[in-house]
Amino acid sequence: MPDLLQTLAEPDESELGGLDAWWRAANYLTIGQIYLQGNPLLREPLAAEHIKPRLLGHWGTSPGLSLVYAHVSRLIRHTRQQAIYLAGPGHGGPALVAAGYLEGTYSEIYPRVSQDEAGMLRLFRQFSSPGGIPSHVSVTTPGSIHEGGELGYVLVHAFGAVLDNPDLLAVAVVGDGEAETGPLEGSWKGISFLNPERDGAVLPILHLNGAKIAGPTVLARKDPNEVRALLRGHGYDVIEVEGDDLPGMHVRFAAALAQAWSRIREIQAAARAGQWDRSRPVWPMIVLRSPKGWTGPAQVDGIQVTGTWRSHQVPLSGVRENPEHLALLDGWLRSYRPEELFDATGAPTALVRSQAPEGVLRMSAAPAANGGLLTRELDLPDFRAYAETVLRPGEARAESTRRLGELMRDIYTRNPDRFRLFCPDETTSNRLGAVFEASDRAFAERVTPDDVAIGPTGRVMEVLSEHNCHGWLEGYTLTGRHGLFATYEAFAMVSASQTVQHGKWLQEAAQLSWRAPVPSLNVLLTSTAWRNDHNGFSHQGPGLIQVVLTQRGDVARVYLPPDANCLLSVADHCFRSRSYINLIVIDKQPQLQYLSMDQAMEHCARGAGSWDWAGTDDGTSDPDIVLACAGDVVTMETVAAAQILHDRLPGFKVRVVNVADLMTLARPKDHPHGMSETLFTELFTDTVDVVFAFHGYPGAIHQLVHGRPDADRFRVRGFIEQGTTTTPFDMTVRNKASRYHLVIDAINNAKRLPRGAAELKAWCERQLERHAAYVVEHLEDMPEVRDWALGDWAHQG
Ligand SMILES: Cc1ncc(C[n+]2csc(CCOP(=O)(O)OP(=O)(O)O)c2C)c(N)n1
Predict the structure, then answer these.
(1) Does the CB atom of residue 89 touch ligand 1 within 6 A?
(2) What is the chain's alpha carbon radius of gyration, rounded to the nearest angstrom?
(3) Interatomic CA distance for residues 665 and 560, integer angstroms
(4) CA–CA separation, 315 vs 301, rounded Å?
(5) Residues of the chain above pLDDT 90, percent
(6) Is 477 touching ligand 1 by the criterion CB < 6 Å?
(7) Geometric angle at alpha carbon 687, from 685 and 688, rounded to 5°
(8) Which candidate among 76, 273, 445, 544 keeps its CA 20 to 30 Å from the CA of 681?
(9) Distance between CA atoms of 246 and 264, rounded to whole angstroms?
(10) What average pLDDT does this structure show over 620-629?
């Protein structure tokens, strides 16, 4: 080991030559991708026709990214360390594409982009071009699990990737602009949840190249003492490298990387040899200060570019039209001496090729970055064993999520290395606490005797950051493992953008045959809008449903199980699925239970169904009204409304339809779960009016039923941003989705009304008035509402 460390820390001249050659080649290919559509090897003087008509891409970050890549590759060659590379500034896409190309992986996956002159030209032309590849480190880039398009998530992805991955090192370059984002600032805390015995390691490299798109960065302009103090405060051992001198920077970076790696290995080796005192290790990180756009044209038109924000994208513009800029580009490309880097055929020379690690040790070929290849099925217990006993529908109340907690407890036990729950401090509150019978919360900081179910060996991930939870789960699933993110419904909007970005990733990945499907990202929204009566308006927001609905049908799934058995059935399905965003929405409070396990399984398999026991429809002819519902609280209101109609308007035929899989409402051509026209008509008829009580915003239902027969007949009640701290039933009243509103809607919209309808409407209005007075006086709901359960009448047929 000491010899190895010395070799690592002190590259000899020949190694320095190899490192520098690889780096020059990567920089050359980066610039070629941004600028060239011909003459890739500069066999002739550069001319206007060799330049792309649209110059797109980001140069500024790229030389720094490639320098780090070159050095980590050397580390891997010497140590056989398994590593993945995450570029926070993912706009440095051409640098990572260049790396994959130099390592040969790119041509293995995309044979047309061969390692010769023709292939190099294709590499250049495809970049940021129609029909080609995107500009970022996107799904098409081998070795990537992190696009880095929306900045801020590099560390959360890196930490998620190394959980339960003891042999993996995630090298994560953090941009100094990116470091200004909220998610990134919160994500340094990842080490407070890492276990050196069982998890791998993250090596953050904070790249202080000084600028973002159009100005300086905070951390680059801070006194270095403050930066050091900040990072040390986060718990890191800060190793610093600064400069632009060569080969000095190679020498110093090699030494820094060697120091960081040996520290990581020491921490891990001690922990794995049973010599870990359970205190949080001080993990190393590197601060790299190198100029933005390093090795690019220093000045353009007399203005400094290198080392400034002006190098962020394309440092030389108008190259076709401006002979001076063309000459500068020619000189810039030749400064890397391409003739030393690529042979007569255009292939990288032996020296350049020899810098790459072997086979799957190449970071562009890392199996962990194509996690579906490594995915092992979850060993799932039979979910039916956790069933809630339901003797009669709508009679007894239970906390549905408790059953899911019990299921996950046993998933933890059976899968000690590939399943985790991620939750912002609410596992117990969300009634999922049974998992603590199988595992503590993970926590590497100090634990006191007052703390419960928490410690360094725990594997339940609780951190008060939706960004961390979501991002860790993304990193965990993209590297092939399984999990669930459980959160308050309203605060899922904190990480909604991550949901969107991950959906885009999954959608694009599905187009690439070489990317194996990965376990789905399962999101449980509990503590929902309707039952945050105690917390108030800030906690009442069903927005994530809307967000997921707008995602493409090949990735988006939204489930609203009405009770515990449906939740179990849906959860089992989601845990088995691949490459989806599965949104499951159900509240944690005691709620009526409707379906036995067999009925729940059938209902969830169909996604929607008529609840004959709740309605008064005999099935022989069309009903007078269809009362439809999706979501637990509004389902109760719907069933209650149906009972009122049964009791007080005899002869009025009501059909109750519950939708557990929201996407079944869409047409099959709009979503793969969309129910057939025949089934839709069977449930909703073609002409009868539908009063639809929905958990989310009403517009979602209109969006989903668009194009169905006479879609205008759907009258939708849902969350209309009416909320406060109040009683549970008052939430439904304020949003006009209470049982009384639904009855009034049914009467107002039915084409045929028996006698007594006007009286019933008036009674409902009086009930609403009574409610308004009652809650103010008694500070709780009217007993007939609070304790309501379905009467005996419902169980006769
Ligand atoms: C969340 C987010 N906000 C804004 C942007 C637009 N943007 C793209 S690059 C960039 C500057 C990035 O600076 P830095 O992280 O320092 O990267 P580098 O200097 O290495 O290019 C910005 C603001 C973005 N991609 N993501």
Answers:
(1) yes
(2) 30
(3) 13
(4) 11
(5) 95
(6) no
(7) 75
(8) 544
(9) 27
(10) 94
Tokens of 48: 């206007």
213 C-alpha vs ligand 1 centroid, how far in Å? 7
Q: How far is the CA of 425 from the centre of ligand 1 (A)?
A: 30
Extract the tokens encoding 185.
């600032």
Q: In sequence order, what DSSP letters do the residues of 53-116 get, joined into one string?
A: SS-----TTHHHHHHHHHHHHHHHHHH--EEEEEESSGGGHHHHHHHHHHTTHHHHHSTTS-SS
**Pairwise CA distance, residues 484 & 583, whole Å:** 10
So what's the pLDDT on residue 792? 61
- Give dist(CA 431, CA 438) in Å, integer: 15
pLDDT at position 793, please? 57
- Label residue 797 by pLDDT band (50, 70, 90): very low
For 432, the token pair is: 């999922």
Sheet holding 654-659, edge to edge: 608-610, 654-659, 625-630, 690-694, 714-717
Ligand 1 contacts CB of residue 177 (under 6 A): yes
Of 258, 259, 335, give the one whose Cα is nearest residue 297: 335
* Cis-peptide, bond into residue 247, ω within 30° of zero: yes
Share of the chain above pLDDT 70, in %: 99
209: Cβ below 6 Å to ligand 1? yes
Q: Please name the helix (run of DSSP H) or strand (run of DSSP E) that holds residue 159, with its range, or none.
A: helix 154-162
In a mutational test of the pocket of ligand 1, which residue from 65, 67, 151, 184 has the highest number of ligand atoms less than 8 Å from its CB?
A: 151
- What's the one-letter identity of residue 119? G
Query: Which residue, 62, 105, 173, is CA-closest to 356?
Result: 105
Beta carbons within 8 Å of 786's beta carbon, 6+ residues apart = 729, 780
Residue minimizing CA distance to atom 17 of ligand 1: 175
pLDDT, residue 753, reads 83
3-state helix, strand, coil in the chain (%, to 5): 45, 15, 40
Any ligand 1 atom below 6 A from CB of 603: no
Cα–Cα dist 587/559, whole Å: 12
Q: What is the DSSP string of 645-692?
A: HHHHSTT--EEEEEESBGGGGS-TTT-TTPPPHHHHHHHH-SSS-EEE
Alpha carbon of 158 to ligand 1 centroid (Å): 18
CB of residue 593 inside a 6 A radius of ligand 1: no
- Which string of b and e fits 707-741 if b means at least 16 CB within 10 Å? ebeeeebbbbbbbeebbeebbbbbbbbbbbbbbbb
Tokens of 320: 């076709």
Reference 387, options 562, 607, 583, 566; nearest CA is: 566
